[in-house]
């Protein structure tokens, strides 16, 4: 068996990949299983696999899945849990388990035999998953913690010291299998015999703990190989003990940190035992982590270290018995999205000193913390302050952090060299000020630790344009920095909330870069659980802030991300799970905010953060201004009606589909009656209003040319070749221009270096994406230098329109490859790891020819648009296109030859 190190995008409990290779009957055909991790609590998990082959036009014709309760049975081809039989289907990415009911904590083994048009494969090597705890009563013991303050806490400042808990255990038999299930709130670290279990950080994932809480699962068989062991858990605050309590009407506070742990053990003689948290555990708050706060940082006093506290033999006589405490209230769920992890170490690029303070420059804005090496006298206090930018005098610029202190403090225990990094905080930064450092600091004494959700980068993009490549790089860093188990808006100031308005289209583009399907499946559940009983959806989910402003554009993220996940993964369950809640919200908005003229009157933000007319016009001014606009809310309602109609088709609900389409027809009429101007624009005739009307299909057929002319006029003449869109309009601008036949104008916007543009950010030192187009001159109250909302549809456009990698149906089983060959762009090299395998599109052009290499994974096909009017001008591997039996010419239209090709690698050359 050959293992792959990478994680692959799958849905609802399928995270890990394993390359399972068997000797196939058909030459060059291999099967790769996408297998489940530990702790899957779905009754019918989704099983997926890939066919690996270099042959062309490989199609799956049938499959047979075996699922067994033991490896031995599976090895004998006994599917005692499920034998699907031979199923004639090309489905390989969403086969739902349909066997016997699974039991909690059970280990399940499976394999698949695949039949293709090229031959039959042998059975794949086995994969396995472990069932989680399916029922509430599986957690039949008690929560422990301390629901009170201690003298180690600073109640007035809102600071709480970490809670430490321990227990020693004795096992009388040899362990065959042991699985630990832990819920540690807000954040935890779990130890056995002094060694941390797992490499996750800031775990578990954030939720509204009154609605649901996440548990993590670990195989600890190896750690419990002896008879006597010590268990230890450290609890940090996270968002359970609210990081800001001065506004109780705004911020949810869930209480004091608490935990529940159980270890289920099967001994070699077949007997079983479960270890639980109870009041025989002991705890203390008098440890080295004196305070830990997501916004403010961590204070660590090494003089208070509890040496060996999670190991056998530690003297805990000064500790007190753990106390039984109330449970959080939410449903217990296995965490399907991966935890955060230190994903990369980043060395500083420079260190400077003045007046006893050092400034570290890491050369890159990112999120995480600093690991420090230091040696000095006992009691020496070293302070690290974090910032994204510097003042002109070289000191930190921290005004844009608002009330976040973003400061870590380490107090030395003395004598020996000490190495430290925080446990329960993170920062967004490029620069760090170090003060109080004993002796002379060296650049090698510090290391930046880049922290985000553990997920694979699945997309690559480069082109002949260096600026476009840099924007793509900045986007990657910004997106990764803001993956914190929820898609936060920014990692540095006292906000860090999952604003729905930032992500409707950004999430779509992000999926081309990261294996984030489970991440966004989890977030959709956060949104669903935050919905009020009347149907209202908040602006922030989980609703850590109680913001329910009722508008169309922000909650549009809910159906739009569901649509993206369905199209990119082919898993209809994402629609099944959320359709009722989405429909309830749509009905709520219609009933509450549609007037007698058919207009949705409620919009909260307008085109949020649209750029000031000039860079000077916005100097020193706050962008925190709202301009509600019923054109936006009504246009979005129309667009979402069409999405809901599409969802209804996939769910077999023809009655709802007819109702949604009928509503859409009437809305379209009312929208044009109320908002269309005879001069060819809508509403106030802004770029955003007109873009929405064009892209959503609201404009009457006979008026499209006039509206297109108006859009171009705004950009080229009124804006001098620049955009003027905020967070709403930027989500649609690149694709709208391309659909209008003006991809050249979209390219111009992308490659501008003057204000406002992505290039302007880079020209002024940005290494991520700013919150504001004028982030270098705006009032610091709101000018994060690490946001994603202004990416809009740039990434979507880059992959789908420049590279030509777009899913037409069933999670890229049918691909639409229609790249834009733009004057001034000489090459594009892009790839995307879909569930079927890698899709690649690499093209380059000269004055005389275009060369285009396309890679299509097995069991998929592509509709390929060749940019030529002349079929005879095309060759594939030096052979005329017409002479290829495995390529079907579908049509010759609009200056392009459309062909259909199965899996394989194709090298096209087109004479120009």
Automatic annotation (TrEMBL):
Record's keyword annotation contains Transferase: no
One GO MF term attached to the UniProt entry: hydrolase activity
Signal peptide limits: 1-22
Catalysed reactions listed for this entry: Hydrolysis of terminal non-reducing alpha-L-rhamnose residues in alpha-L-rhamnosides
Protein known as: alpha-L-rhamnosidase
The enzyme's E.C. designation: 3.2.1.40
The Alpha-L-rhamnosidase C-terminal domain, residue ranges: 804-879
Record keyword Zinc present: no
Keywords (A to Z) from UniProt: Hydrolase, Signal
Species in which this protein is naturally found: Sphingobacterium arenae
Ranges of residues in domain Bacterial alpha-L-rhamnosidase N-terminal: 173-343
Domain Alpha-L-rhamnosidase six-hairpin glycosidase, chain residue ranges per copy: 457-802
Domain Alpha-L-rhamnosidase concanavalin-like: 353-452
InterPro entries (alphabetical): 6-hairpin_glycosidase_sf, 6hp_glycosidase-like_sf, Alpha_rhamnosid, Bac_rhamnosid6H, Bac_rhamnosid_C, Bac_rhamnosid_N, Ig-like_fold, Rhamnosid_concanavalin
């Amino acid at each position: 068996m050959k293992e792959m190190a990478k994680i692959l995008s799958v849905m609802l409990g399928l995270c890990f990949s394993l390359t399972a290779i068997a000797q196939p009957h058909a030459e060059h055909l291999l099967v790769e299983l996408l297998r489940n991790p530990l702790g899957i609590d779905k009754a019918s998990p989704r099983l997926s696999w890939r066919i690996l082959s270099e042959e062309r036009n490989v199609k799956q014709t049938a499959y047979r899945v075996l699922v067994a309760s033991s490896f031995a049975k599976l090895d004998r081809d006994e599917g005692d849990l499920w034998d699907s039989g031979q199923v004639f289907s090309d489905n390989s990415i969403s086969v739902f388990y349909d066997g016997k009911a699974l039991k909690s904590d059970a280990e399940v083994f499976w394999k698949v035999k695949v039949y293709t048009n090229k031959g039959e494969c042998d059975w794949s090597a086995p994969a396995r998953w472990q069932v989680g705890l399916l029922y509430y009563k599986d957690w039949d013991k008690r929560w422990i913690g301390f629901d009170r303050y201690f003298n180690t806490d600073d109640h007035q400042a809102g600071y709480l010291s970490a809670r430490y808990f321990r227990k020693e255990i004795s096992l009388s038999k040899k362990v065959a299998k042991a699985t630990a299930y832990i819920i540690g709130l807000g954040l935890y670290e779990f130890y056995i015999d002094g060694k941390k279990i797992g490499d996750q950080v800031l775990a578990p994932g954030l939720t509204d703990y009154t609605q649901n809480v996440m548990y993590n699962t670990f195989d600890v068989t190896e750690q419990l190989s002896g008879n006597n062991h010590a268990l230890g858990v450290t609890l940090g605050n996270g968002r359970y003990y609210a990081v800001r309590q001065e506004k109780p009407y705004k911020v949810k506070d869930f209480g004091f940190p608490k935990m529940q742990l159980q270890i289920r053990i099967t001994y070699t003689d077949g007997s079983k035992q479960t270890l639980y948290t109870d009041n025989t555990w002991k705890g203390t708050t008098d440890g080295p982590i004196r305070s830990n706060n997501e916004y403010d940082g961590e204070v660590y006093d090494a003089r208070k270290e509890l040496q060996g506290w999670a190991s056998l033999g530690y003297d805990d006589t000064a500790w007190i018995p753990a106390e039984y405490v109330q449970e959080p209230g939410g449903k217990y769920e296995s965490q399907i999205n991966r935890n955060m992890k230190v994903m990369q170490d980043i060395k500083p690029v420079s260190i400077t000193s003045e007046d006893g303070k050092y400034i570290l420059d890491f050369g890159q804005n990112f999120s995480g913390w600093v690991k420090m090496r230091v040696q000095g006298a006992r009691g020496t206090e070293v302070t690290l302050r974090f910032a994204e930018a510097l003042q002109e005098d070289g000191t930190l610029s921290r005004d844009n952090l608002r009330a976040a202190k973003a400061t870590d403090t380490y107090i030395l225990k003395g004598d020996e060299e000490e190495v430290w990094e925080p446990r329960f905080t993170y920062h967004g930064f490029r620069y760090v000020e170090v003060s109080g450092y004993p002796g002379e600091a060296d650049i090698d004494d510090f290391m930046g630790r880049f922290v985000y959700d553990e997920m694979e980068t699945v997309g690559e993009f480069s082109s002949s344009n260096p600026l476009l490549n840099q924007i793509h790089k900045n986007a990657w860093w910004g997106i990764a920095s803001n993956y914190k188990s929820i898609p936060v808006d920014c990692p540095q100031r006292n906000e860090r909330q999952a604003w729905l308005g930032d992500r409707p289209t950004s999430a779509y583009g992000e999926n081309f870069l990261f294996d984030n399907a489970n991440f966004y499946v989890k977030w959709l559940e956060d949104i669903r659980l935050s919905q009020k009983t009347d149907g209202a959806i908040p602006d922030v989910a989980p609703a850590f802030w109680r913001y329910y402003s009722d508008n169309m554009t922000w909650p549009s993220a809910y159906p739009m991300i569901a649509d993206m996940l369905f199209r990119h993964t082919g898993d209809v369950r994402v629609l099944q799970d959320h359709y009722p809640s989405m429909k309830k919200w749509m009905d709520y908005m219609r009933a509450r905010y549609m007037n007698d003229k058919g207009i949705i009157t409620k919009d909260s933000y307008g085109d949020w953060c649209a750029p000031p007319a000039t860079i000077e016009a916005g100097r020193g001014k706050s962008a925190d201004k709202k301009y509600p606009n019923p054109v936006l809310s009504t246009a979005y309602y129309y667009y979402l009606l069409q999405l809901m109609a599409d969802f209804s088709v996939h769910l077999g609900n023809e009655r709802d589909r007819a109702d949604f389409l009928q509503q859409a027809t009437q809305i379209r009429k009312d929208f044009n009656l109320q908002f269309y101007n005879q001069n060819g624009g809508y509403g106030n005739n802004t770029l955003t209003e007109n873009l929405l009307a064009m892209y959503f299909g609201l404009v009457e057929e006979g008026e499209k040319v006039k509206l297109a002319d108006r859009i171009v006029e705004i950009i080229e003449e009124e804006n001098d070749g620049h955009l003027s869109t905020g967070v709403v309009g930027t989500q649609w601008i690149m694709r709208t221009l391309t659909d209008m036949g003006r991809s050249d104008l979209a390219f111009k916007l992308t490659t501008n270096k003057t204000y406002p543009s992505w290039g302007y950010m880079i020209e002024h030192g940005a290494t991520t994406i700013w919150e504001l187009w004028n982030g270098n001159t705006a009032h610091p109250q709101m000018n994060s230098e690490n946001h994603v909302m202004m990416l809009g549809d740039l990434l979507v456009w880059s992959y789908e329109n420049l590279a030509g990698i777009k899913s037409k149906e069933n999670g890229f089983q049918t691909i639409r490859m229609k790249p834009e060959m733009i004057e001034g762009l000489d090459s594009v090299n892009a790839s995307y790891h879909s569930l079927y395998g890698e899709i690649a599109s690499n093209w380059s052009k000269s004055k005389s020819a275009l060369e285009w290499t396309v890679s299509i994974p097995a069991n998929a096909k592509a509709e390929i648009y060749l940019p030529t009017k002349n079929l005879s001008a095309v060759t594939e591997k030096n052979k005329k296109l017409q002479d290829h039996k495995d390529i079907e010419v579908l049509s010759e239209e609009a200056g392009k030859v459309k062909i259909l090709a199965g899996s394989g690698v194709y090298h096209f050359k087109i004479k120009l």
